[in-house]
Amino acid sequence: MSISVSFSLDPANAVDVQFVQTTLGIVAQALFQKPQLDRIEQKLDAFTQQEHYDMAQLDDQLVSLTATVAQNTTVMGSAAATITGISAQIAAAVAAAQAAGATPAELQALTDLQQTLDTNNATLAAAIAFNTPVATEVPPGTAMQLRQKISG
């Protein structure tokens, strides 16, 4: 690499000479630092590429997790509905047996079972309500959009 510079200066004007010396010093320093700057730029490019890859993976994981939570919520809701249905069937059977002349003592085992199911159902329903996030749809690309907002 060669650099050619020509100036027309008044040697008596110290300001001009000082300006040229400072400018040439800055140019020389920049030329010597260019390889270092190139390495820094390469590292920043690699970091940016890795960040894009990481954010894409985060998007994929977020979509997968959202689907899993939705599936679990549906399964737990189905379990609660099943327990409620069984309890209702036991209650109907107890009422029919009492109408046919069965005594409360004879039906105590079924009544206890129904109460246990109702308690378990209430516990499950409370757990579902506690662990179910507010329904929000997470569109693909959300993490990438967040990163773009942060980086400006």
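the 2nd protein, sequnce then structure:
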Amino acid sequence: MHVIEHLPLETERLMLRCYTLADAPSIYRINSIEEVTRYLPFGPMMSEEDAISQLERFFLPAYAQADAGQTGRGSLPLDLKFAACLKDTKELVGMVFIETSDGSCKLGYTVDSRWWGRGIATEMCQAVVDLARSLGITRLTATVDVRNAASERVLVHIGMKPRRPAKGIWQGGEKNGYRLWELELKP
């Protein structure tokens, strides 16, 4: 399964593509805002170097591994990590991924706060769900801090169902409640 063959993914307003190092300033801009990272397991990025490190540690190696024919557990593709850009301006406004390296398929995303409330998160997540279905992935999960009602609404819009509450330790060692969401994909 080579995800690159399906790229760029296009929606009405967005183009989802692979990351490049040139995306570091945009990734930093989005993830340096405390409000954006409030419900994530990591706090705000402190510098553009943090964004470069994230690209070099997580995103770019996944593309290289996929190009070399490597897959995750269960033969899952490793390169389901996308920069979501506006089609008309090419501005990076969000990040969306399915983490597959451990054999599960966990959906995650972040959206530039300037674009909150405009359906960007739903649009980019739906595109990735559709791609996952076309690749034969049968189940997606997501974990959301129970205080994050906006993200829970996005998951409802893309068809996910809440499954069970759980507890976890997130940024700063704070114990938060979170909920596991699930979506069974049919071909």
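The chain is about 30% helix and 30% strand. The two ends are 16 Å apart (CA to CA).
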